């Protein structure tokens, strides 16, 4: 009987995680990165000391790119992180450079 609450908690956590994946997909069309994310990602690429807000923008961009950091053992790490980083790099190169030029 003691296992039931643990199992119920685990099932609830998995259900919430799946719901988050379904709801938090990449936005269709349009820019993927906000102006703040572009600014913070550009600042992180410079050699200035990073701020917590800049790191939070980077994590938000990685989440938009499909990366979901998990507190549990992730069998796809680091490949899933690298894919998301590559996607963010592409977005940064196309979207952020255009917004800075204009």
UniProtKB/TrEMBL annotation:
Residues 1-22 form the signal peptide. It comes from the Bacteria. Keywords: Signal. This is DUF4148 domain-containing protein. The lineage of its organism: Bacteria, Pseudomonadati, Pseudomonadota, Betaproteobacteria, Burkholderiales.
């Amino acid at each position: 009987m003691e296992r039931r609450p643990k199992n119920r908690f685990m099932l609830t956590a998995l259900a919430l995680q799946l719901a988050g994946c379904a709801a938090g997909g990449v936005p269709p069309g349009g820019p993927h990165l906000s102006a703040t994310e572009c600014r913070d990602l550009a600042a992180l690429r410079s050699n200035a000391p990073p701020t917590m807000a800049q790191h939070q923008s980077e994590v938000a961009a990685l989440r938009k790119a499909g990366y979901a950091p998990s507190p549990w053992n992730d069998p796809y790490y680091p490949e899933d992180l690298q894919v998301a980083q590559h996607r963010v790099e592409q977005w940064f190169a196309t979207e952020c450079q255009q917004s800075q030029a204009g």
